[in-house]
Design a protein that fits this description.
The complex is a heterodimer of chains A (292) and B (67).
Chain A (H helix, E strand, L loop, with lengths): L9 H12 L2 H4 L1 H12 L8 E7 L5 H6 L5 E8 L2 H6 L4 E4 L11 E7 L8 H11 E12 L5 H15 L12 H10 L3 E14 L2 H10 L16 H15 L6 E13 L18 H5 L4
Parallel strand pairs in A: 1-2, 1-4, 2-3, 4-5
Antiparallel strand pairs in A: 5-7, 6-7
Chain B lengths: L13 H6 L10 E3 L4 E4 L4 E6 L2 E4 L5 E2 L4
Antiparallel strand pairs in B: 1-2, 2-3, 3-4, 3-5
The chains are: A alpha/beta (292), B mainly beta (67).
């Protein structure tokens, strides 16, 4: 099988997260917020999960939000950054989310908050997650999707084209909502559901946003990024454009994050399934009383 | 109260030993308690356990045939 294209530099992802770990508490609002929204979905599921995994746990934000909620017995936390993992507590594994070191048929629940968007082989990892789940196990993930950081992407692009007549990738490509549904189906999940939620955060200025992204460990880790420091003049020009296009009366700027929630179950014989086409016992028209 | 002073005394969660496999080969691992390592015979690698945390990264693993 052909190897998937290498879009993200996982060594850089690890380094960015390691560096960010020290100041994470000041910058992890988005992670805590999305962890909270993901955790809110668990009580809807009326069952217990004796063994759960948080794949890409950052500094343990989800575990703290869960705090015994959601019927979880034992939570294993896995993360690529050792420095972030050190801030978490309990049962932990230092690993690359791209190659989860877990056996098949083990987990009742796999969770993931804002980590999957840095994976090179998202379809492969989703299929791995499905196999790591016991039959009828649940996967609940939140990732950044298309539309995230569009203001920043546009401002950087315009500033760079102005300055040099060309542009290099600076903001991640994100998965589209429609593609996410297809990915869940291709990974073999039963009853996949995909939905999205827009979170708009407000920053004092574009520089504050860029500091926050770095503080989240979300600095540019694209494999094809320009490997030289971005010139200060370019950043300043982009910040100027950002401000000009988006600033409110007080000079604050918005940053949009499009969070995609992925839900799916490992297939099990007991699950509801659509009937085979043509196997119906009654005509829909009869039920609806529709005689044209 | 006496604090354990020896380094690496944090025991790895026994639950993890039931669910971890080699990230490279997906093969089984053997727990070497004395050296605090998880041995993957299929990949010929030993993954270190530090402060109770298994480091399941190929770049951090020791090659079994290196010495």
């Amino acid at each position: 099988m052909a190897r998937p294209p290498r879009i993200f530099d996982r060594t850089a992802v690890r380094r960015h997260r390691d560096r960010a770990a020290a100041a994470a508490a000041a910058h992890d609002f988005l992670i805590r917020e999305v962890a909270d929204r993901l955790a809110d979905r668990l009580p809807d599921v009326r069952r217990r999960f004796p063994l759960a995994l948080d794949l890409g746990c950052h500094g343990g934000q989800l575990a703290r939000v869960l705090d015994g909620r959601g019927g979880i017995g034992h939570l294993v936390q896995a993360e690529l950054s050792g420095a972030m993992l050190a801030a978490a507590a309990g049962s932990r594994v230092h690993c690359d989310e791209e190659a989860p070191p877990f056996a098949d048929d083990r987990f009742d629940l796999v969770l993931s908050v804002l980590s999957l968007h840095w994976l090179n082989d998202l379809p492969g990892v989703l299929a791995r997650i499905r196999r790591m789940l016991k039959p009828d196990g649940l996967f609940l993930g939140a990732m950044l999707g298309a539309g995230s950081l569009d203001e920043l992407r546009q401002a950087l692009l315009a500033a760079e084209i102005d300055a040099s007549g060309g542009a290099s990738p600076r903001v991640s490509p994100f998965v589209d909502l429609r593609d996410a549904g297809g990915l869940m189906q291709a990974a073999g999940f039963a009853l996949p559901v995909v939905d999205t939620d827009r979170i708009v955060l407000s920053y004092a200025d574009p520089f504050a946003l860029m500091r926050e992204l770095r503080g989240l460990g979300e600095a540019n880790a694209l494999a094809d990024r320009a490997k030289v420091f971005t010139r200060r003049a370019l950043i300043a020009a982009a910040a100027g454009l950002y401000h000009q296009r988006h600033a409110d009366a007080d000079g604050r700027v918005p940053a949009s994050f499009q969070v995609i929630y992925l839900t799916g179950w490992a297939p099990d014989a007991g699950q509801p399934k659509p009937l085979r086409p043509g196997s119906a016992q009654a005509r829909l028209g009869d039920v609806l009383g529709d005689d044209g | 109260m006496n604090e354990p002073s020896e380094s690496g005394t944090d025991e790895v969660d026994p639950k993890l030993l039931e669910i971890l496999v080699c990230p490279l080969t997906k093969g089984p691992l053997t727990y070497d308690r004395e050296n605090q390592e998880l041995i993957s015979e299929t990949a010929r690698l030993a993954y270190p356990i530090r402060e109770g945390i298994p480091i399941m990264l190929v770049e951090e693993a020791r090659g079994l045939d290196d010495d």
